Amino acid sequence: MSPTRENKLADQYFDAAIGLLERVRDEEAANIAAAGGVIADAVEAGGRLFAFGAGHSSLAAQDIVYRAGGLALMNLLAVPGVVGVDVMPATLGSALERVDGLAGAVLDSSPARPGDVLVIISLSGRNALPVEMAMNAQALGLRVIGVTSVAYAAETRSRHVSGTYLKDHCDVVLDSKIAIGDAELTLDGIEAPFAPASTVVTSALLQATLATAAGELVSRGIEPPLLRSGNVDGGHEWNGRILTEYGDRIFYRH
Fold it and tell me: Locate the SIS domain: which residues (predicted)?
């Protein structure tokens, strides 16, 4: 492939990603503000924060846990076998997303309690695991923020026995606007569409939400419990203080 053709595809991808980012910035502003308020409420009330995603949706969840510049109280709610692609074979992770009962077992054994916040990330929002996770979390008294593509609910069938989707069991929904199939480019000679953008957009949505939460906390006179980079002078000392002060709400260090 010639350099000119490579650059054309790269430009097309960047244009598609930028267009999606502009859409979520403009169209999801109210939902981002609402989600940021939910997180700020939990932090102010002494609650804890959790994030869950299966498969590649777990990338966006991991991006906001133990992250420089992020809220120290965000914990990863891990489900064995579905976080990332380290399970062998990789297709097992996808199969586990369709298993009924798994989410309930995970929540029942987790430290989550009423008043906490659970961010659930699922591009399609149609599989049993994220739907059941949201349903059970709300039943337990957690506030649920769902990050999903609402388009899937209009054009696919739910894989949960209830026939519902993640979006139906959330206090706030952040719509990533990703088209079904999660591939932004096509090209003559390539039969499958390619170049997914869901990770870029979902991560941006979540970082914007956490930034909103930090600003909301400051407006209430509360210093957000943020982590600093360990690669800058004083970062380790800062983080040590934060981890100690909020140790009863942080679970990834144990």
Answer: 39-224
